[in-house]
Amino acid sequence: MESVYLKTLVEVVKAGNISKAADILCVTQPAVSRRIKFIEEQYGYPLLDRSGQTLTLTNAGKLVFEKAEKLLEIERELLSGLKSMRENKSISFICTPTFGIVHLPTVMREFMMEYKDLADLSFMFDTPGNIIEELRDGMYDLAVMEHCECFDFSDLTTVALPGDDMIFASSPTLAVPSGITAPDDLFAQNIFVRKEGCCSRTLLEGNLRAIGRELSDFKSFVVIDDLHMILQVTREGQGVSFLSRELVQEQLDTGLLCEHRIDGFRHHRNRTMIIHGDRQQQNSPLNYFITILSKHFDLPISC
Fold first, then answer.
1. What's CA 166's distance to the chain center, in Å?
2. pLDDT of 99-124, one tens digit each?
3. Residue 234 and residue 170: Cα distance in Å, rounded?
4. N or C: which end of the chain has fewer CB within 10 A?
């Protein structure tokens, strides 16, 4: 069983309800409920007593919860131990997909041209909530992520980077009015969205709730966990999407896509560089990579 299910159970028990656990895990309440149901079906026992105002563990749940905490602690120790075995000349970097597509190729090319003496270099994509958790578990040295939530960074070293704007994009063939667009003009279309937990979807769903709407108000919504594929089907005129403006800037400039905004929506999101504190060594590959990132965004190198 994937550890994410055990982590979900532990957070639900600690929070006392599914709503708070969903906020902590940066996923929706239905996603948390599905994970709990999956565990219960796997083990063949109800794990939570749902009869009261606060969720409590059944006898079977107490056993699973106790073992889950031990397994998760073993996993953290294992990951930390494996990471400490790596050579000093290595970097493990994780980011959200938008940064990975728009900015990472340029940063990586400059880094590889200037810093050739490197034993190990790994890059991964993930959602903001998972990135924070994996950094705290010591799985990565450095991260860059776009996010709309207010995460607790108090135990991490962070640098604020220039933010990013999210827009609706569509093919001109759909004839949706550009600029500030009436919501119903967009709701008449299919919409392509990322999986739960991704910043773009979290921001979109939050905006929709603020105006009393939801994803189901669109003609249909299709989940595609691949930004390149979302771009392709959007350019083909199969529907609209809610994407980073940086990601589609070239298509907007050339007229392949049209930009739409909804009055009252929050379209801006933050971008943060996060450094795993115990990896800040003078003249290390990590510090050099941070320098390249800083130059890329025209930030003071001292950061």
1. 14
2. 999 999 999 888 888 776 655 778 89
3. 6
4. N
User: Residue 160: helix, strand or coil by DSSP?
Assistant: strand
Q: How confident is the model at residue 303 (pLDDT cuts 50, 70, 90)?
A: very low
Integer CA distances (angstroms), 276 to 3, 60, 129, 135, 262, in order: 22, 38, 16, 7, 38
Q: Which residues pair with 243 in a beta bridge?
A: 167
- The per-residue pLDDT for 281 is 55
Confidence grade of residue 169 (pLDDT, cut at 50, 70, 90): very high
pLDDT for position 278: 52
Q: Give rounded-to-5 percent helix, strand, coil for the chain.
A: 50, 20, 30
CATH topology of domain 3-83: Arc Repressor Mutant, subunit A (1.10.10)
Residue from 165, 119, 127 nearest 143 by CA: 127
Amino acid at 194: R
Domain spans of the chain, in order of start: 3-83, 87-303
Averaged pLDDT, 190-211:
91
Cα–Cα distance between 153 and 74 in angstroms, integer?
A: 24
Q: What is the topology classification, in CATH, of domain 87-303?
A: D-Maltodextrin-Binding Protein; domain 2 (3.40.190)
Statement: residue 37 has pLDDT above 60: yes
Q: What is the rounded distance in angstroms from the CA atom of residue 33 to the CA atom of residue 41?
A: 12
Alpha helix stretches (DSSP H) within 55-148? 59-84, 97-102, 104-114, 128-136
Amino acid at the residue 147: H
What does 21-53 look like in DSSP terms, one character per residue? HHHHHTS-HHHHHHHHHHHHHHHTS--EE-SSS
The percent of residues above 70 in pLDDT, for the chain, comes to 90
User: Could you tell me which residues are beta bridge partners of residue 143?
Assistant: 94, 274
Residue 247 CA to residue 251 CA, distance in Å, equals 9
User: Of 84, 65, 66, 88, which Cα lies nearest the Cα of 76?
Assistant: 84
Name the pairing type of β-strands 56-57 and 48-49: antiparallel
pTM of the model: 0.68
